[in-house]
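Dear Dr. H.,

I hope your travels went smoothly. While you were away I took the liberty of generating a structure for the chain from your last submission, since the lab meeting agenda had it listed for discussion. I wanted you to have the full record in hand beforehand rather than looking at slides cold. The sequence, exactly as received, is reproduced here:
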Amino acid sequence: MTAKRSARLELPGQVVLVLQGGGALGAYQLGVYQAMDEAGIHVDWVIGTSIGAINAALIAGNPQEHRFERLEEFWTRVAERTRFDVAAAWPDWDKTFAKLMIIGAGIAGFFQPNPASWFGPLARLGVDRASYYMIAPLRETLVSLVDFDLLNAGHPRLTVGAVNACTGAMRYFDSRDQHLNVEHIMSSGALPPAFPAVRVEGEPYWDGGIYSNTPVEVVLDDRPRKSSVIFSVQVWNPEGPEPESIWQVSERQKDIQYASRTDSHIARQQQIHRLRHVIRELVKRLPEAERATPDVQQLAAWGCQTTMRLIKLAAPRLDRDDQLKDIDFTPAGIAARRRAGYEAAMRAIAARPWEAPMDPIEGLTVYSV
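The corresponding predicted structure, in token form, is as follows:
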């Protein structure tokens, strides 16, 4: 489906799109981007982890007029179609069978079983092969859909997060600061033990989601900071019903883990930005002669006048979701999440929260959809 594009919509600051990791749940981000594209909202900076990094690379590595098409093509390629049409008789069986096929056979164009894993979990295969699946098919898919020369041109800027498998340190690979290639994108989605570590500059890296799955702090701590409208797209919902079975407990555990304490991180950033604005206001009250002294200028540098408007788009829980929802690559599952993302983003855009007045002391305002 071709997106209906409007003329470019100017927003008060750079437009930043932050994409959380979550496997098949990333189809929600496809719908969000579709709505933004139709509304004429052009992204200046896209940040992603795991499947969010893949979606981000597809956006940054294609011309504006083809970005949504490439995103859509990727999700069409990885959609798992069950081999038998039994959905009419057993509505849940089609989805269940597809998940079993994915676990057993992988997904064409994404990942495939690793025969070396059959030697057992104690076999010393090396960090590059110690996994249940191999992701060589993903490399081929990314190379065919992403123009890495365009991706590194910086329009939009791209940042992807991965964690060093040896040091445990989070690292953000940024097209503003270095040349990115397919390994940087794949490392951000290398979730262990399903996928092997991917080497970047000789070091093994895993999925950044095991450390920080919602890297909104990258924007708020950027140097130099710029006023921004941030679309934070969250596919894991930390809120949910009280679980009643071990199976439901496992789902809630994943929801909470991969939501990555987003609300508490944002609350802390609101405090920090308020302090920056307080410093700015206090410096204004000093006599001009004092403001010109080196000591005061050094202290004043901690102040800030940028404004951050964060629009939080949280994916809803869908009917019959369970702890394997992140491998629900069925066409129906992808379509449902895409539709949810599109509708949520359209509601947010219609509300135009970036036009709401801000308290001059508050540096960061959050709008939830």
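Two observations you may find useful: The longest helix spans residues 262-284. Residues 83-89 have pLDDT under 50 and may be disordered.

With kind regards,
E. W.
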